[in-house]
Amino acid sequence: MAEERGVADKPLEGRVALVAGATRGAGRGIARALGEAGALVYCTGRSAAGHPKGMDRPETIDETVALIGHAGGRAVAVRVDHTNEQEVADLAARVRNEAGRLDVLVNSIWGADPMVDWAQRFWEVDLSKIRAYLDQTLVSHVITNRHLAPLMVEANRGLIIEVIDGHFAGYRGHILYDLTKASLARLAYGMAVELARTGVTALSVSPGFLRSEAVLEHFGVREDNWRDAIAKDPYFAESETPHLVGRAVVALAADSQVRRKAGLIHFASDLAREYGFTDIDGRVPDFPRLFDAKMSELASAPSLDEQARWLAAARYWQIHQDPARRELAMALAKALDLEDLGPGLAPAAARA
Predict the structure, then answer these.
(1) In 239-307, where do the E strands start and end?
(2) pTM metric for this prediction
(3) Which of 42, 177, 275, 316 is catalytic?
(4) 177 is catalytic
């Protein structure tokens, strides 16, 4: 009986995982969950002890490793700049020599928030930063997959996960941000196509309204009193900890039929309902449901103030290509006076 519990508690015992971008946020939550599930986790990123911290944040990969160790897991911190191909090649060689295998690769590299001015339209973007931005947010993922995927392909097994933002095909609010996140989803899809005849699976996972270190700090709360921030933002009621997306990755990695999910975008809370796990507080947040309910209220309001109009427009552009949300998209289009749009921008046609 004890052995059975051990298998259930450590479904990834004997596996080796690598989380690129394990310093904070979703990456840290995923690394912790993989370690708690029994995997040996290589935690990589630029922010390490003795080195400058990324994004002017204090978190380091060494802290992530310490958290995994405190929970009884095993992890290794490796400082890597994933935009530097030689450093990534050296990382792949180290994993090959030390562990001899790689079962799960998670790309959660970001660190580009300071490079984005959300108030700028595409014709106002500072082009002096664009190459550094794309190197950090997109090219780094291509480099990482290029050098680490061979360990999986050679063994004919493994799972590659791209961590993105949003599981809708619509717009994410800023031209560079949208370009990168959509490209990462496409990257996972393209890899899945090329891996279809192998035992390796590639897919995308998106968290919801994430209570990352930076978000908690922004609202002036801690994890133990996060509900105090709901008064400032009612949507925060359906936020989630980084542990939820971490548990989603563990569930996928432990699923013997995960290849059936190849190439698709998976939302963390949807996976929680499918696989039967919860966030650390026992909840399964449903941010999209809450957002859509609020948007339905706005769509039926006699008039919209500036903030409400901004929220309604943001949601419309996120969901207008989703046939399942056609009714809400049409209501929002009417409220926003967007009913004369061509088919490329109008609500998607309902499926037959």
Answers:
(1) 265-267
(2) 0.94
(3) 177
(4) yes
